[in-house]
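Contributing new records

If you add data, match the layout below exactly. Sequence lines come first and carry their own label; structure lines follow with theirs. Keep one chain per record. Anything else will be rejected by the validation script.
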Amino acid sequence: MVGPLQRVLVCSPRSAGWDQPQKLSAWRELGFHHQPDFATAQAQHDALFRELHAVGAELMELPASPELSLDAAYAHDASLATDFGLIALRPGKSNRVVEGQHQAAFARQSGIPVFGEMTAPGTAEAGDMIWLDSKTLLIGNGYRTNAAGIQQMRDMLAPKGVEVLSAPLPYGSGPSACLHLMSLISLLDERTAIVDLPWLAVETVEMLRSRGFQFVEIDYSERDTLACNVLALGNRRLLAIEENRRTNDRLRTAGFEVRTFPGSELCINGSGGPTCLTRPLLRG
C-alpha cells in the first residue's frame, strides 16, 4: 500500500453521474452533507488527477454506467488489488453492491486478472482493508464489512499464504455513517501510519506496535475533515486534502513530502478522501 504508485483506477464525478439531476437528488440518503456542486467537484477531481499524473502514475477512468450512484466516485471500496489479481468485493452499502461487478468487468476488459468475487451474505469494502505487508491483510469488522465477508477473504487468500486478521471497529456515529478502518489509520510507509488513536481499538494499536509501526497522530480538530485519509504515493510522498493544514504540517515535520489538492466538495462533503477516490492497481 506504500510502494511507488504506478497504475490507479479512478471514477470522476462525471462518470459517477454527479451532473445528472436524477442521481444528484439522492444525496441525502447517500449521506452527503449537502447537495454536491458538480462543477466544483469535477474541478477538484481534475486537481487530484494532475497530482497523480505528476508522480508518474498511469490513470485509468472507470466508464459511466446507469447503475452507478454518486458513491462510485469513491472507487477504492469496491475491489481489492492483490498480487494474484483483483478481488471484486460486495459493499455493505446497498446502492454500492453493483460497483464490485462493474469494476471486475472493467478489469477483464482491460486485461487485468480477476482473482475472486465476494458473494452474499458476505459484505466487505476495501476502505476496511490494510495490507500490513505482502502476506498480512488487516480487515476492519464493522457496519460495511461483516464476519462472513472477512471469512470469504480468508478462504480466498489462505491458499496463497496470506494471513487475514480482523480488527473491531467502534460504533462511531452509527450504521448510517461511513466509518472504515482507513478512516482511523492510513499507512505512510512500511512502518509508519497516520492514526486517529482514540478511535482505534486497544488490540489493534498493540498489534501494530508489536509489528514495529510508528504513529503520526492527526490534529483532532481535523477529524471531521478526513485528516486520516492520506494516500501514500511511494518514496515518502503523500497526497492529502489541502484543508487539513495542521495535520499536513505534522506529516511534513515527520519527514514526508505532502502534496495536496482541494477537497471541500469532492471529499469532505461525501466523506471520501484521496484514498477513497483511488483504486491503486499497481505499485512498485
